[in-house]
From TrEMBL:
Pfam families: TPP_enzyme_C. The keyword Disulfide bond does not apply. It comes from Micromonospora narathiwatensis. This is Thiamine pyrophosphate enzyme, C-terminal TPP binding domain. Residues 42-162 form the Thiamine pyrophosphate enzyme TPP-binding domain. Gene3D superfamilies: 3.40.50.970. It comes from the Bacteria. Keywords: Decarboxylase, Lyase. GO terms for molecular function: carboxy-lyase activity; magnesium ion binding; thiamine pyrophosphate binding.
Length: 196
């Protein structure tokens, strides 16, 4: 009997959030943000509701500004849309960023068009861009253990590629909170500020 394999985006996001604790988590736009929100809001979650391709850049900015571990939940389409962010992150060898790419081979949020990610070595691209740590997994236990270890403060960017076996699923409702209120709440949570 083989190891349990990651099948859905929901399963992977649940595993990440369960292991993240109070570590800030940047969720890429579309279904990823909607799924994360539907699993139960955490004040340390940031749900991007636009700006596809920029989750990694936002996560790098938060990690650089706070010098705290940050987790980015990204997608294959988003990474392929903005590979220049990988080069920026790769040039910051002490950045405490965990960049997780959930790869279902589809632009799920816009109709399921193929990304053709299976034709490209995303871990190879990240390694060439300078990430000091690169790995792939399809096992929930390995994903959870890696996130938990990284949330304790291991420095250096990690690119973690997770191939998913399915892409069709109900993402839950759209993020309803006003964007400026959501951003302000995330900022307060990350900086440890009391709610006014």
């Amino acid at each position: 009997m083989g190891c349990l394999q990651l099948t859905s985006k929901r399963q992977a996001i649940a595993a990440i959030l369960n292991a993240a604790g109070s570590t800030p988590v940047i969720c890429t736009t579309g279904y990823t943000s909607r799924i994360a929100q539907s699993l139960g809001h955490r004040p340390h979650n940031f749900y991007m509701t636009g700006s596809m391709g920029l989750a990694a850049a936002l996560g790098a900015g938060v990690a650089s500004a706070t010098a705290r571990p940050v987790i980015v939940i990204d997608g294959d389409g988003s990474v392929l849309m903005n590979t220049s962010a990988l080069c920026t992150i790769g040039s910051m060898p002490a950045l405490p960023l965990t960049h997780i790419v959930l790869d279902d081979g589809r632009y799920a949020s816009t109709g399921g068009q193929p990304t053709y990610s299976e034709r490209h070595d995303l871990t190879g691209i990240a390694s060439a861009a300078g990430y000091p740590y690169v790995m792939s997994t399809a096992e929930p236990t390995e994903l959870t253990a890696t996130v938990a270890r990284r949330a304790t403060g291991q420095a250096g960017p990690l690119f973690l590629h997770c191939r998913l076996s399915t892409s069709a699923e109900d993402p839950g409702p759209r993020v309803a909170e006003a964007l400026h209120e959501h951003a302000a709440g995330f900022r307060r949570a990350v900086l440890g500020q009391a709610t006014e």
